[in-house]
Amino acid sequence: MLEKKKTKRKKRTREQIFKDWELWVLKNGHLPSFRSKDEEERYIAMTANVAMSKIKKEPQKYKEILNKHAIILRIFSKKRTKERAFKEWENWVLANGRLPSQRSQDYVERHLAPRINVTIREMKEEAEKYATLLKKYEELKEKYNPSKLLYIRTFEAWKAWTLEKQKTPRRHSENEQENRLSLNMSYCLSKMKKNNILQDIIVEYNELCSKYGR
Q: Cys-Cys link to 118, which of 17, 29, 37, 123 (CB 3.0-4.6 A)?
């Protein structure tokens, strides 16, 4: 019986090996394991371990990679409790006034996004134990929903212009800012009404329209 030939892998630099490891973590939300049943995961874990042992011998040359590696290990460490992982995410959200994005240029933010997804999934497996944190998670997600933040900021800009000019922005105005404010507010207003959200803003919008004219 012929032995199955192993696929020959392309030789990679240490930087490329680290990048592949980093992308794997971002995609899967946890560190790759040597004991995994998945061949690709084992390969990623093994090659990264070898590469990092060599990288650590040249700290000045690989300073950036070492810093990034330390951040990922801290965020995705299995020794880290769910409570601690949630707290770091919560602190980041409260400090920045929005939810972290996996597409962010900020290194910590980019890794907090997938980490919280894994943490919440694990918490849901013990929903009764983590009921308080799960409730807080949903509240923060709702409060800092990207769409809601957009609607609020759009209204604040529209309101500021209205109070300053003592009239509401008109569509088809020759003034580009006025025209844009009117269009943006109309779009956000229709979305708020459709989704039945931010009723206080809709009420205030109608009051300002009544006072300063549509």
A: 29
